[in-house]
Amino acid sequence: MTLTVSIDTTSSVPHYEQLRSQLAALIAAGTLPDGERLPTVRALANDLGIAPGTVARTYRDLEAASLVRSRRRVGTLVTAPPATLDRAAVTEAARHFVRIARDHGLTDSEVRDAVAAELVRNGTASSPIR
Description:
Blueprint: H1 15-28, H2 41-48, H3 52-64, E1 68-71, E2 75-78, H4 87-103, H5 108-121
Antiparallel strand pairs: 1-2
Helix pairs in contact: 1-3, 2-3
Organism: Isoptericola hypogeus
Keywords: DNA-binding, Transcription, Transcription regulation
Protein name: GntR family transcriptional regulator
């Protein structure tokens, strides 16, 4: 499996949060389907040029959110998110938002910051933004 995730070293968003949000988005969109095995912590850390502890923290956060489960000798597997909302509508809204942001010249970091700020305003952010 080839993962299409990247780390922006110039962003103020911590590496683990960048990785967590990208993987969560891939899972929510169905790009990473139920049962898909994620790369090992060491392999993904090596591919991204980050510390293994960063990837391990990301995997723990994803497991706490019930998006993956980790088992010894099996690895880290994607668990399908509950179908409690129309994910296609949310995905389309996200595409639309990104198109507007691009039209206005926002960088990836600025787009993430805008979403994070809106989550904070709505009181839905699950962790403080650093």
